[in-house]
Amino acid sequence: MGQALYIRMHAQDNVAIVVNDGGLPAGTVFDDGLTLVQKVPQGHKVALVDLAKGAAVRRYNVTIGYASQDLPRGSWVNEQVLQMPDAPELEGLPMATVRPDPLPPLEGYTFEGYRNADGSVGTRNILAITTTVQCVAGVVDVAVQRIKAELLPRYPQVDDVVGLEHTYGCGVAIDAPDAVIPIRTLRNISRNPNFGDEIMVVSLGCEKLQPERLLPAEAPLRSMPHPGAAPAAGAAPAPASVLDVVCLQAEEHTGFMSMIDSIVRQADVHLQRLNRRRRETVPASELVVGVQCGGSDAFSGVTANPAVGFASDLLVRAGASVMFSEVTEVRDGIDQLTARASSPAVAQAMVDQMAWYDAYLARGRADRSANTTPGNKKGGLSNIVEKAMGSIVKSGSAPISGVLAPGEKLQQKGLIYAATPASDFICGTLQLAAGMNLHIFTTGRGTPYGLAACPVIKVATRSDLARRWHDLMDVNAGRIAEGSETIESLGWELFHLMLEIASGKKTWAEHWKLSNALVLFNPAPVT
């Protein structure tokens, strides 16, 4: 079994988590004399002191619950013996009160990326085929498979072809106030930096979400006259391109294969332009990194997420953009976030997003306790309060310089709060819409998550998971718990790996072509 180990996150904590693989049996004695009253699984909490019924249970120096019974020192502390605290109020919060000394800029770091005419930079060179409605998804899927088999081998500079398929577009209240969220999400994903300014749309014809509404003239598309070349300094803006739409109900289509042939022909035009693009050296400030956790466990806030937080600070110092998200997973730490806001207006914008989501949950007669999954609990997370404390540390320590509502496009550098639901797939979709060109995903329980539109670096929180899923995890953060790495050293390792992946090196998710369909956040009612 080796030495019995636990990790205590703060000197004021009265619980700690068991480190050892497989957990520890009753009677185990730690070096400080703490003796387990009962078996405690790996990642689960043990009482460091006697806890009377009603006593506050503290981890991360935060009250994560109250003991529902007397818990002697050495007891297993889990969700069954904890009462969850009330959610923090959204009034009277500290607003932009933390003013850390600015860290020195991090200069001289670069990667090999694709410059776009709109000023953004891609880390991949992908043809995306946008769909206006769920009805065309099957046709587009067949077309994409044919394009990959017949056309893609002719264009070695193009990384992939993806269909932006979803379940929206018709049968919904298209003019409802919140319909703007799924529509702008799909619109902004179509302009993701990894798609090289090439916009191709497949429409059915009779849907509510018509192509002109999805991609209106007042938000012009851009096309590059000479793909691969950045516009010259002082040059006029690139002209708006003609909306390239294949309409399946058009009279010229006489049967299924006619539809497929039309999509393939149009794709060939875009592939020719994309194939002329070349990577060039760009500063690390062109990275737009989304950070997310899924299948979390008690080690998430100990190993992987703190290392990602350290790397996030490095990215901000390098002038890049970093987005953290997941409303329900930061709701219980809102006071920490508003305090770190760069201004009272940014703090209030975060509060507004929390209030919107509180109301959304209330409409559905749900509450925040629904977030913590059976897998989270099996991994040692007793409730959403504890989960939130481990999730927030992905954001590092930089000031929060902006807030994005769901589906909005990023317009600034620095650390950004991009409001999204906590669902892995919806969060990833919304971060893509914001302009993400690189994704960091941490997991403790494990999930075969990936994004077709963007490279995903997968970080395991535990060495056991990294060993078992050796060809799915890119980084093993469990080395921090074992003492062979520090948060800082692994943070630097992640930073350098991000530059390599952005320059073209594949992640395991890309190697296996792991990806999910778009999942649009749709709060609009169904008709």
Account of the 3D structure:
Strands 17-18-16-15-19-20-21 form a 7-stranded parallel sheet, with helices on both faces. The chain has a 4-stranded antiparallel sheet with strand order 1-2-3-6, with no helix packed on it. A 4-stranded parallel sheet has the order 11-10-12-13, with helices on both faces. Strand 12, helix 3 (211-214) and strand 13 form a beta-alpha-beta unit. It is built from 15 helices and 21 strands. It has 527 residues and is an alpha/beta fold. Residues 219-241 have low confidence and may be disordered. Helices cover 29% and strands 17% of the residues. Helix 2 (180-190) packs across helix 11 (424-434).
Q: Percent of residues in helical segments?
A: 25-40%
Radius of gyration: 24 Å
SS class: alpha/beta
| Tally of helical runs | 15
Question: Which descriptor suits the 3D outline?
Answer: globular
The number of E-state strands comes to 21
Largest sheet: 7 strands, parallel
- Can you tell me the residue ranges where pLDDT is under 50 for at least 5 consecutive residues? 219-241
Distance linking N and C termini: 60 Å
Mean pLDDT: 93
Q: What percentage of amino acids are in beta strands?
A: 15-25%
Strands side by side in the biggest sheet = 17-18-16-15-19-20-21
